[in-house]
Amino acid sequence: MTADIAAILAIDGIATGAIYALVAIGTVLIFTVTRVIFIPFGDIAAFTALTLAALDAKQLPGTVGLVVVLACMACVMEVTSLVRAGDLRSVPKAVFGYLVLPLIVVGIVWLTMRFSPPMPVRIVLALLLIMPVAPLLDRIVFRPIADASVLLLLTVSVALHFALVGLGLLFFGPEGVRTEPLTSLGIEIAGVQVPGQTVLILLAALIFSGLLLLFFDFTLLGKALRATAFNRTGARLMGIRPARAGTIAYLLGSLMAGVSGILIAPVNTIFYDSGFLIGLKAFVGAIIGGIVSYPGAALGAFGVGILESFASFQSSTLKDVIVFSLLIPVLLWRSLASQHSEEEVEE
Amino acid sequence: MTRTQIRLIVAAVIACFVVAPVVLNPFSITLMNYIGIYSLAAIGLALLTGVGGIVSFGQAAFVGIAAYSTAWVSALNGYSPWLGLALAILLTCSVAAILGLVTLRLQGHFLSLSTVAWGLAIAFLFGNIEGLGEHNGISGIPPISIGPFALVESWQIYFLIWAIVGVVLLVCYNLLDSRIGRAMRALRGGNTLVESLGINAFQIKLVTFVIAAFLGALSGWLYAHLGRFVSPGPFDASMGIEYLMMAMVGGAGSVLGGVVGAAIVTLLKNSVQDYLPLIAKGASGQLEIVVFSALFILFLQRARQGIVPLVAGFLPDLKLSRPQPAAPLPHREQPAPGTLLLKVSGAQRRFGGLVAVNNVSFEVRSGEILGLIGPNGAGKTTMFNLLTGALRTNSGEIAFAGRSIARDQQFRIARSGISRTFQHVKLRPRMTLLDNVLLGTYSRTKTGLLAGALRLNQAEEASARYEALRQLERVGLGEKPFELAGNLPLGNQRVLEIARALAADPTLLVLDEPAAGLRRQEKLKLAELLRSLRADHLTILLVEHDMEFVMSLVDRIVVLDFGSKLCEGGPAAIRGDVRVQEAYLGGVA
């Protein structure tokens, strides 16, 4: 391997790493606020890419159907539980939040599509359309068992991923997509050609993680989220509703995953089931950061990206084996490094 | 239900299984074959996940290793499938042992995540190794032959599969009812509990993990020779979660649940395949996984317990007979009263900048009850954890019976004769009183894995059971030895913990706030019990908050305050000590 090749591989790895970093940050966000290890984030990223591709092709994206179905389910569940609790006054608000709002989003997309909007608008539409998915899934799948152990939540999360892959095929079909590049420019750094797309990916990753940081540090909502992550009971006593904090975390996490999906779509062909590997690799990065630290998760994700890039140069067939085998020593190191209290007991 | 009734039911079930191939059509027999094969993998997972509390998403990978091993041996190299079985078991168990050694120290969800990782890595390997047919798999696997008879027809291999399932079920039930099996059942109570009983928790986890892989290997071997073809698909991550689903739906705590779960999932899958095309043409393959995952999520939300425990709840209880007198277990010689038993010198423990225990020294002499008291935050619990090995000292020395224990692991300290109880009671609520106390006899008995699984050491088991009953009677809980521990009121749960500690035949009993949360009557009874133990020359160290309880009971008191020893002496002297009054009441008016 020459220095040139190493440089190209490194640049490639950093670009992939930046994409994983966005998903990894979303994963950490969800885990700290809700204790759910949200494996399906990769699917959210892949669905965003598929949505954008459908919009590019002037077709109604499958996400529309997905959102409508999920919104109906979530609305029925929320209203049922409100009626059971005798809290009839909250019903209109619940219907608005869980049904009308997602339908408004769907309506906007449907209407805007008729005017063949330019690329930036299509990207915004794709992101808008994908954002309700995770919060709705949260309401349907995780809210009823919010107090269960991390382990049970993880099991449910893995099952949910498989359900989403199936739904992905149903709503998006088996064809892979590759969207048009966002930029065709390129720059040269120290004799190595760097594609504009790579620069864009890095910039987007930096901007969105920076925005998240600002959100956490300078807004009341961000602080409420951090408080919930730190201590759920304490936050509840301060008038913060963990369920609402969870919804916001899912929205923000979806935005991060969605952005990563849009960034990756021009570089890799995305299929309905591509999300699993993106999600899991991002997740390996998140674990390197102990699934609690944002900078740790981002750094870990970059590490995974670079490792993957070099591994695929050595043996393209075994790169996934190498990446996932890496998780075991990392987990071991994490578990030895952190002091654990007695594990939860579940009967 | 009596044992005879159960034997009759089992005999009837076996008869049904023997007759089944005559009655059923070939398709149903094939279905039964797959149910049997999946059962084996699911039983392994029931042991690992349900009994041991280790949620694994990687069982399919073990099944795959075995299937590929035997395919390589028999199809690619032309040797006998039986040689394939040998390699399958050897390879699968070795891989499991190595993975276990590396990952089983991980805790909770980290451990489960690691199973996702290696499960995926192994599944990717199958599709990418040239010698194993890559994504095309290996075809032309020969059938299993017993002597000159090749098991070609599905009804022929049916008998082999279900005979293996039957034997596995029997052996698993025996195992869970033996010394090692009880240790496995205790794993869900957490490491501190398990180690406090003198059990090497890591070793037991590793054993459970390898057993699960072994059952996966049997399943994979049969799978390869039933379908006569292997490809990466049936061993990927989605199959891993399907096995988990089988184990959990059936009732993760029970081995029979593995079979029931495998049957339900397989039949359900089959009917979903039949009916989904009627609803949605073309997309049925993927809808299947949606329906399945949705059902699984619904199940996890609503009925985590599983089917077998649910049904068992409606059946009449099994009538168990009280343990009969048997030869006593080996007994430790108690040291002569007054000899030095435990010596703590200059023990120190820091947490970051906080010194929780600072240069504390005291002694415990044989035959006395020593109380360790102090206001909140005095370092009592930390001191207790240092003694029992739950925490390590930063400096200083702890010697028990003349031997240093400051660097020992918890289970070694427990085995050397220090038994403990817990401030927050740690019992296995779904095990009987007798089984809970039997856990205490672990360090005094020897029955290994195989002997337990094959019921070869019934003499020792009888002795252990009688000893457990004796300890239950000693603390006054001998009335209903088959009651579930979770049904006892808190006071009796604490007493049960003491019985369990006594069953280990300790020289030193250390009690962590035994009176916390007890009513007055219960406290009086507890004090009475502890006095009777002292009369039997047992040495007791107790950490306690309740002054009245301590003062009326102990011989000597050591007072801690802000991590340091304030003073020590008899109850009267401590009561009159100005420094103690100041520490507790903030100065004397």
Automatic annotation (TrEMBL), chain A:
Similarity remark: Belongs to the binding-protein-dependent transport system permease family. LivHM subfamily.
Q: Where in the cell is it found?
A: Cell membrane
**What's a single GO MF annotation on this record?**
transmembrane transporter activity
Transmembrane segment boundaries: 6-29, 61-83, 95-113, 119-137, 149-172, 192-216, 248-271, 283-306
Q: Which biological process terms from the Gene Ontology are attached to this UniProt entry?
A: amino acid transport
Q: For this UniProt entry, what's an example GO CC term?
A: plasma membrane
Main location as per UniProt: membrane
Q: What is the lineage of its organism?
A: Bacteria, Pseudomonadati, Pseudomonadota, Alphaproteobacteria, Hyphomicrobiales
The species this protein belongs to is Bradyrhizobium macuxiense
**Keywords in alphabetical order:** Amino-acid transport, Cell membrane, Membrane, Transmembrane, Transmembrane helix, Transport
Tell me what this protein is called.
Answer: ABC transporter permease
Which topology term describes how it sits in the membrane? Answer: Multi-pass membrane protein
* One Pfam entry name: BPD_transp_2
UniProtKB/TrEMBL annotation, chain B:
- GO CC terms in record: plasma membrane
Main location per the UniProt record: membrane
Biological role stated in the UniProt entry: Involved in beta-(1-->2)glucan export. Transmembrane domains (TMD) form a pore in the inner membrane and the ATP-binding domain (NBD) is responsible for energy generation.
Looking at the record, the residues that make up the ABC transporter domain are: 342-587
Organism expressing this protein natively: Bradyrhizobium macuxiense
Q: Where are the transmembrane segments?
A: 6-24, 36-62, 82-103, 110-129, 155-176, 197-223, 243-268, 275-300
- Could you tell me which Gene3D superfamilies the record lists for this protein? P-loop containing nucleotide triphosphate hydrolases
Protein name as it appears in the record = ABC transporter domain-containing protein
Subcellular localization is given as: Cell membrane
